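Section 3.1: Structural characterization of target chains.
Under the original work plan, the team committed to producing a structural model for every single-chain target entering the pipeline before any wet-lab resources were allocated. The record below documents one such target. The sequence was received from the expression subgroup and is listed exactly as submitted; it comprises 363 residues.
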Amino acid sequence: MKRIGYLMSLVVVLWACQSEPVSSLTRITSFTKKDFVSLTQITSDILTFEIPFAKPVSLICLNDRLMVVIESAGSHTNLIKVLDLRSGQLVQQFGKQGRGPGEFMDISSVHYSETEQRLDLYDGIMRRFTQYSLAELTSATIPDQPHIIDLTTSLPAYDFLEACLIGDHTVCGVAMNNQHQILVCDKNRTVCLGYGELKEGTADPTLPENILENSMWLAPHPTAKRVAFFMSFADVLGIIDLDKKALQKHHGPDQFSPVYPAFSLGNGLESYGFTDDTRNAYNGIVTSDRYIWGLYSGRHVKQYMTRCFYVHVFDWSGNPLHRYELDQPLSNFCLMPNGKGFYGITYDENSEQIVRFDVEEQW
């Protein structure tokens, strides 16, 4: 789930099937740190595994015993390890760079469905999901021909930066021709909803038309047809209700806007970069039946902005509930299945480790 390399334009348009806008923005709110019910400082415990990690970039729990860790190999994220949390042993390892079945160019998002006991690995370069059942992940041999959902067949012109599955719907964060949107596709992979209108030159996420910016973290509700997303360079939480075709947007707690000016690449092409004023907002998202959890930075470029010292918790109405202050920064995290804590990836100058935080619900 890498974001920094995906800087695109700040020009976003509303798009839906047959060019008819069928989505609506129903709620826009702003909040500050004072609106959280409470703040708790928590400390971590380092987990011990029998194998070293090369470069872990994301992780997710399958149940209270098994964890999947995604590692990068060189410049691509394509190595998957299944680990036993109790024994610290490696259960399974698979994945390599390539475009064939069971191969990955770059795994950009990972989701696990507890109800269907299915792991969804989304490859942003290949624009496809590769799916594995829990039984397959714990078997002696990983299948050579896993189930694949290819998104290029229905929407071939888009760059799919982020995607997740909600029942028979697919929710995609996409970019095309310097435009960024969230598209919702039905079971036939036909776009049925579109979100995102950002007027050229507008960089203020408090405005109704400025719903999205170029980079986000996306996660589905475990059972309902809802999806939440955090922006990476503006502290904004968005919640989409697929049944009501409505979007909520909540700006805070620091209420800053994306800052990355354009520069010319020649031949009429533009790209975007950072300045000293660029800030990182959220660097990860996990969801449960009741809550949305976001890994928060708020730091500037010169402050190692992807090091996150806070976890923010919201309900599915977007109300800020609780802030956790961490004793060490995380680059990514996942929720424990029982909701009583989370695991995270932390790093120092020498290595990267997986740590555990236990929490109690206090709101």
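The longest helix spans residues 134-137.
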